[in-house]
User: What shape does this take?
Amino acid sequence: MSDNPALQHEEVVVRRGRRTGVALVVAVHSRVLGPAIGGCRMRRYADWRDGVTDALRLSTAMTYKCAVAGLPFGGGKSVIALPEDAEPSTVSRRAVLEDMGELIASFDGSYLTGPDVGTGPDDMLLIRSITPHVFCLPEAHGGTGSSSGPTAAGVLAALRAGARHVFGTGTLSGRVAVVSGLGAVGSLLARGLREAGARVIASDVDAAKRRFAADHDLDWVDPEDALGVPADVVVPAAVGGVLGPGAVRRLAAPLVVGPANNQLTDDSVAGLLAARGTVWIPDFVASAGGVVYTLARELDGLDHDAALARVETIGDTVAGLLDAARAAGTTPLREATALADRRLARP
Ligand code: PHE
Assistant: This one.
């Protein structure tokens, strides 16, 4: 994301959990602005090295997410790389989270974790039994629980700012939105968009989600066709790497904004999107709501409404970046990266 050679990963630790033998990764990209923060992702990988690659990319994105959001934190991420062929019962969830807790503990507070794809507040509680450096415990245990709601709220704020920029109005009533991925955040977004009066066309690799779609008055499109559906906005809400040159050619929406991390196959795709007249709002800007909200509540002691008001400022940030890109003839990605780099240069 940056040409700055000083911004390479500071620390990457790969360890096989002593309880489970599962490959665990903690990647710290930068602590220039403060201790590294980033969620713990748990998923299956064909090869554990793919988990390392994921951790490297995701931790870099967290540095930029925190910097653009104005948070005094650096970027990190942890990955529990479950083997593709493991029987769910052979690797106990508790044991693998304790293994990860031990690895996180060794960072002594210079890497702080929270939930991410594949983990939730109950898992944070298990990690918490080993190390205190954990956010988003269940509410019954004094935490603020899942950060999916605030993440979705931040994406909606970004989406409204994007709509204002592209259509001249942020009103979502009557708009057509494609939501690709009905996971924790995607399903909340789909419902939020529907409640705002948009027509929502949803998709997920898990065909069982069709039931959820039907129950919430969402139309359905198969995942391989989702990006090409003519719509006002496409919302990538599944895993990363969905926007490459081929996908960009298929896109039939003037606005793309969503919570999936690392949406572009590489940064040059931002130029391809802009050349087609598609406004892409960088994922690390739009998806900051979870971490912004959690830190406002758990660190700064704000109440729910005040913390949510902070999340809403993501809309102002997006408006500023889109204006700057339009004025300078650059891309929103370029402007967001430049903003982060300025903050990282003068912590
Ligand atoms: N998964 C969150 C993200 O990608 C990270 C997070 C960390 C959320 C700590 C809350 C608290 O931004």
